[in-house]
Design brief:
Blueprint (H helix, E strand, L loop, with lengths): L6 H27 L1 H8 L5 H17 L1 H15 L1 H21 L3 H4 L1 H30 L7 H8 L2 H20 L1 H8 L1 H21 L4 H8 L7 H5 L5 H30 L9 H13 L4 H12 L1 H26 L5 H18 L2 H10 L5 H17 L2 H12 L2 H16 L1 H6 L22 E4 L4 H11 L4 E4 L4 E3 L1 H9 L13 E2 L3 E2 L5 H9 L4 E6 L2 E7 L15
Parallel strand pairs: 1-2, 5-6
Antiparallel strand pairs: 2-3, 3-4, 6-7
Helix pairs in contact: 1-5, 1-7, 1-8, 1-9, 1-11, 2-3, 3-7, 3-20, 3-21, 4-5, 4-7, 4-20, 5-7, 5-11, 7-8, 7-20, 8-16, 8-19, 9-10, 9-15, 14-15, 14-17, 14-18, 14-20, 14-22, 15-18, 16-17, 16-18, 16-19, 17-18, 17-19, 17-22, 21-22
């Protein structure tokens, strides 16, 4: 049961959602992959580790503000629409990205440059915290129920694709301009180009795309909540948010960022120094592109076998692969074996496509009701990947400053911690495959009991039954189903009908809507038959009626005959 959306419309929505989310990640991760250069420009220090820690702190603060962005834009999206929240977040990301690209360095304005970077990273964190949750919800509420994992899996290619694209742009600009010019000023081009493209996508989405059918339905049936955040933190939903954050998204967060970010730092000049930073970025970028097919594939697999087995394979399988993968990196790295390094990077990005696939997005979408979906999805996602995952470079570097063993530091955070966190999901997490997000809009949920009589019942007896039941309408059954109300009575009397005549002669003939079908069929019947109520059936039995007064006035018909 769902509202039918054409494949062409789904494809169009998927394309713009993918583009918007992709560019948000390009903007956000441009800083991450340029952290070493940014450290020298905005956080100069005689101690390179201290400088890098300051740069990673600015990286981390962007992640830490993502949950606040989830709350702000989640409230916006659950009250005013998914599209509005998505566009607003993209505009904010545009401001943060261009700001970093144009901000003077420490040599020009001193400590104000360092402060400015922190402020702009906060802006980016707020934007991404709301924007990506809005993108997931926007697309997820358009796609077919039985292909939610597959279609939203394409959306989950945007973070790795965005990061890989940033790596490719860094490699391209550094080769065109030369290392010296790129480090001096060319790195700013990455921020400026990304910001300009985001502006174009915002215009396209604003002009040509509309609200999701699910949120439109929420407005129509008057179920938009005025306090989505309060509901998210209620006793009913907070345990689900915490389980999704800690047991699923948070457990995979350190894994994802180790696969997609820290492995490049690991082999680069700041740690093992097997290759230069540009080569490390190129290895990671190409390996990531070669693994993007995994994200929709395992989303599709989750549509068949369930979300939980796919997600657990992505967490535990990947966590147990790290000790082997990084040991192998340390064997081939000193020999500058780029082919072997690339294959090991590829194995990591392949694993990312299991846990961070359409299974993840479908699980989050199916876990929460429509009225709080954007807030809950965005909060759980950003607490997991934004906080637990986003802290990965900083935490591993901090552990390394104590242990002086980068291999051990990586495994403590990226293998041990995720395996412990995921036990919550193993023990308490539900399987959400089979949950239909349209089920809350089934016609039965809007029906109320009414008087049901045979169509041959005399008008006098129908009136008596209505008065006794305190009901406005009676459903009359027979060869066809009809609705008899006050105006039906007036119409009968004005035609000279006797009170002993069958009421069915003056009832308005309307179809009986299946209780399991979406309430949109009620809207169609209300307008097509120009009535104020329609009957609801389960099988051959009338179980009640749905009245137009239950819905937004724009749904109701201008003229009624009952």
């Amino acid at each position: 049961m769902s509202v039918q959306v054409s494949f062409r419309q789904v494809a169009s929505v998927a394309a713009v959602a993918w583009s918007g989310a992709f560019l948000e990640w390009v903007d956000f991760y441009t800083y991450a992959l340029l952290a070493v250069i940014v450290a020298k420009v905005f956080f100069p220090s005689a101690d390179p580790i201290a400088s890098l820690l300051a740069s990673f702190a600015a990286l981390a603060i962007g992640f830490l503000f993502r949950p606040l962005g989830a709350i702000l834009f989640g409230k916006l999206g659950d009250q005013f629409g998914r599209k509005i929240a998505f566009i607003a977040a993209m505009i904010l990301m545009l401001a943060g990205t261009l700001g970093i690209g144009l901000l003077p360095g420490y040599a020009e304005i001193g400590i104000l440059a360092s402060i400015g970077v922190f402020i702009l990273r906060i802006i980016q964190g707020l934007a991404l915290g709301g924007g990506y949750g809005a993108a997931i919800t926007y697309l997820g509420e358009f796609v077919p129920e039985h292909r939610r994992g597959f279609f939203t899996g394409f959306l989950f290619t945007t973070p790795p694709a965005g990061m890989a694209t940033v790596g490719a742009l860094i490699w391209l600009f550094s080769n065109i301009l030369g290392t010296q010019a790129f480090n001096a000023w060319g790195w700013r081009l990455n921020f400026i180009v990304a910001g300009v493209i985001v502006f174009i996508i915002v215009l396209i989405m604003h002009m040509f795309y509309k609200e999701t059918p699910v949120f439109s339905m929420l407005k129509a049936v008057r179920r938009v909540t005025s306090a989505p955040i309060r509901e998210v933190f209620s006793r009913r939903y907070l345990p689900l948010v915490l389980m999704a954050w800690i047991g699923v998204v948070g457990a995979h967060g350190p894994i994802w960022y180790t696969n997609q970010l820290f492995n490049a730092y690991y082999i680069g000049p700041n740690f093992q120094n097997y290759v230069d930073a540009a080569t490390a970025s190129a290895l990671l970028s190409t390996a990531t592109y070669a693994a993007l097919w995994m994200y929709p594939l395992f989303g599709y697999i989750s549509d068949r076998i369930g979300r939980k087995p796919v997600l657990l394979l992505g967490i535990y399988g990947n966590a147990l692969w790290f000790p082997i993968a990084f040991w192998l990196i340390d064997q081939v790295g000193p020999h500058k074996d780029l082919t072997a390094l690339w294959l090991l990077f590829w194995s990591m990005t392949l694993f990312n496509g299991i846990g961070y696939s359409g299974a993840m997005s479908a699980f989050l979408l199916e876990l929460f009701p429509a009225r709080i979906r954007l807030s809950a999805v965005a909060l759980a996602y950003n607490l997991g990947y934004g906080v637990t995952g986003g802290l990965t470079p900083f935490v591993i570097t901090w552990i390394y400053s104590i242990t002086h063993n980068i291999y051990l530091s990586t495994l403590l955070w990226s293998t041990v911690v995720p395996m412990i966190m995921a036990t919550w999901y193993v023990l308490k997490g539900p399987e959400t495959l089979g949950v239909r997000i349209w089920a809350e809009f089934a016609t039965e949920k809007f029906a109320k009991k009414t008087v049901t009589l045979p169509a041959t019942t005399p008008i006098r007896q129908v009136i008596s039954a209505l008065v006794s039941a305190g009901s406005k309408y009676a459903v009359l059954t027979g060869s066809v189903v009809g609705i008899f109300g006050t105006r039906s009575l007036l119409r009968a009397l004005s035609a000279g009908a006797k009170l002993e005549e069958p009421a069915g002669n003056y009832a308005t003939k309307v179809p009986c809507i299946n209780a399991d079908h979406p309430v949109t069929e009620v809207f169609v019947a209300l307008e097509q038959y120009n009535v104020r109520a329609v009957p609801v059936c389960k099988g051959n039995e009338v179980i009640g009626i749905v009245e137009a007064s239950r819905f937004n006035k724009r749904i109701a018909c201008a003229k009624k005959r009952i």
